[in-house]
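Problem 12. The chain below contains 186 residues. Write out its predicted structure in token notation.
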Amino acid sequence: MAGRALRPSRMRKSPVQMTKENAGIRVRTTLKPDDISDIVRYHYEYYAKNYGFNHDFGKYVQGPLTEFYERHSPDEGIWLLTNDAGLKGCIALSRVTDEQAQLRWFYVDESIRGHGFGNRLIKHLLDFAVERNYGEIILWTVDLLDDARRLYERHGFVLVEEKQSNSWGRELVEQRYLKKFRSLGG
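Solution.
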């Protein structure tokens, strides 16, 4: 799949204009050192601008992402949306245990949203999880992200926990979602 161009989803209800930002989007499955800073920067800038998160959020993304890069585990995967303009999206599957993995660092750049790329990233991740025989996937998010929540739910993720927190400089409701492929231990 690496380097294969994606076409926008045909399932969209209204026509979306192709632009230079969403033309030629490809999926890359290798994480390069420069990608780490790009992913961290995107998360920090987007969440600071749109939700008032402070600089601690960038550190929250950078630490585990760097560890992920250093592990090079065959049981973990990353899918990066790229084009000639650079990195446009990301999703990763990080091993928690032999049976459980975690969806991490998911984003699609605002310039290419609405074309089905987020849906396709999640499908790549789910296919990989099944290939690696994970029993379930968890993900942590916050209740502010309605579009992402709807996408997760369409792919079978179920909200299993909510907790109040004061993270990244503001009051939040953190949410844990779960997608089961089978009963663990079975």
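Discussion. The first helix runs from residue 33 to 51. Students who got a different answer should revisit the alignment rule from Section 12.3.
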